Amino acid sequence: MVTIADIASECGTSPATVSKIMNGNDRKISHLTRERVNEAVRRMGYKPNAAARGLRKQRASCIGIYMQPHAISTRYHGSLVDAILLEAEARGQGVMLFTSIAKAQGDPRRLMFADGRCDGILVLSTPEADLLPIVEQASIPCLCIHNGVLPGGQSSIDIDNRQAGYLLAKHLIEAGHRRIAFFHDGVNKPFSVLRFEGYRDALQSAGIPLDPRLVLDGVSNLMDGYQQALRVAADTDLGVTALLCATDVLALRAIQALRDTGKSVPSDLSVAGIDGIFDGQTSSPPLTTISQRSDKLGIEAVRLLMERIEHPDRAAAHTVWPVELVVRESVGPTATIRA
User: Fold this and answer.
1) CA-CA distance, 169 to 246, in Å (whole number)?
2) 274, 243, 240, 77: which is closest to 162 by C-alpha?
3) φ, ψ for residue 51 (rounded to 5)?
4) Is 262 left (phi over 0), alpha (psi -120 to 50) or beta?
5) SS3 per residue for the chain
6) % the chain with pLDDT above 70
């Protein structure tokens, strides 16, 4: 393996000079020497020892991702993690994935990712209740993604879920819909509640009364989004013309259910979701959605975490990530307007 001493011998200079050039501390070194050393590094295939550099800088050059075990298989979290991995790699950071509150041996108050193996941690979505207090006690830089505004010393980034629900409901209303069913992705999930509140706000702004019969749990134990869509479509007394789903996954299930009963989207019912997952682009019809731009969000999350690592004394901050209405073919005008 090529070492700094080998590079120094090849260039006729000292190992200290090579080390300064490799670490960017070369303002007092001539341009010719810098060029000669950099050329030798490329030609000889020298690779810095990341572990040794980390020890010198008291850094692991690695960040952690904490998430629930089932979340990695979801379309949205998969694309978000992909973006995080690519951005971390571009910044020379390794990534470790943690899927439970793994305590360090001999000290139950410490987390595995807080024992020096990670410089910071990204916490995705809803963690166990005792995770964040333990993270705060461990004094490891942390950024929470999709946890809303958090008390204490944790920074966070999230979309305005209420605004997302509002924008999507407003779009459906502007298309002529008045009987819009809302499908929760779990009635107790904070993000789903906020998206419902946005839907309710849009109805109120348009002077449309809220019908409790049109507010449904798409992932209840008794009936998932597929079955709920079948029931709503079959109940002519409800008069539903559009389904606003708290997530794209629910919306895609609803489209499949309607297709299986011979109904057409959007001719019979319009369907829209929130998240902007890739599957919505290729569904039939393509899904109208509120995109979270997860690829860009992942990049921003890594940037914000690295800022926390570099400046641990800065006050915690909450970043509101902008969303985008993406209009596709799954939403059309009501039958009344078409007639």
Assistant:
1) 11
2) 274
3) -65, -45
4) left
5) CCCHHHHHHHHCCCHHHHHHHHCCCCCCCCHHHHHHHHHHHHHHCCCCCHHHHHHHHCCCCEEEEECCCCHHHCHHHHHHHHHHHHHHHHCCCEEEEECCCCEECCEEEEEHHHCCCCCEEEEECCCCCCHHHHHHHHCCCEEEECCCCCCCCCEEEEECHHHHHHHHHHHHHHCCCCCEEEEECCCCCHHHHHHHHHHHHHHHHCCCCCCHHHEEECECCCCEHHHHHHHHHHCCCCCCCEEEECCHHHHHHHHHHHHHCCCCCCCCCEEEEEECCCHHHHCCCCCEEEECCHHHHHHHHHHHHHHHHHCCCCCCCEEEECCEEECCCCCCCCHHHHC
6) 84
**Residue 71 CB coordination number (10 Å):** 16
Is the preceding peptide bond at 285 cis, omega within 30 degrees of 0?
A: yes
The CA distance from 309 to 118, in Å, is 10
- 316, 154 contact by CB (below 8 A): yes
pTM of model > 0.85: no
pLDDT-derived band at 99 (thresholds 50, 70, 90) equals confident
Amino acid 337: pLDDT: 54
Q: Let me know the angle formed at the C-alpha of 100 by 99 and 103, rounded to the nearest 5 degrees.
A: 130
Residue whose C-alpha is closest to residue 166's, from 215, 214, 205, 213 = 205
**Residue 286 predicted with pLDDT over 80:** yes
Residue 25 and residue 113: Cα distance in Å, rounded? 31
- Under the banding of pLDDT at 50, 70 and 90, the label for residue 109 is very low
Confidence of residue 118 (pLDDT cuts 50, 70, 90): confident
